[in-house]
Amino acid sequence: MMGYTEKLDALLDRYKLKPLKGVMIFMLITVIIHVAWRLWAYRLHYFPIQDFMNAAGNFMADIVFRQGSWFVQHVLGIEITTANNTMYFSNNGYIAINSSCSGLKPMVQFVLLMMLYPGPWMKKLWFIPMGIVVVHLTNLFRVTGLSVVIMEWPNYWHFSHDYLFRPFFYVVIFAMWLWWEEKLRR
Fold this sequence. Notes:
- This protein is mainly alpha-helical and 186 residues long.
- It has one domain (22-184).
- The protein contains six helices and three strands, in the order αααβββααα.
- A three-stranded antiparallel beta sheet has the order 1-2-3, covered by helices on one side.
- Helix 2 crosses helix 4.
């Protein structure tokens, strides 16, 4: 009698989909983590570690705000005023960095994905921290990119925030997973 793994492998072999097995596992793990996070955050309010998660989100939001506003001012040369983790722009636009903008969720998603996905732990010991840094840099790119959008194309801010920069996290996480799968895991 064939088990589920053997049946899945036979199905993938029959339709010549074997190369997509890893991608399907990546997608399944990512969707499960995303749904579980939303349930934990919005229904259970991070129970049983609410205080820790709220503090971590606020801490990360403060770091993203400080680094992002510095980059916007000193590298991009955009004049802003700041108060309460908010960047105010000369065209009356603003970007408020709160805990949901902190990048904490995609960092946790990446860590959980890598912990659940097969591979040698010795490589994971350096790959996971490196991935956290990459996700953080992606978040800074998102904040600075949104700053440019709010100054140059303010009517596209909501589209850019929701449909351009937010999904970009998944592209970056997928690229890191692909690097792991193709070059490092074996």
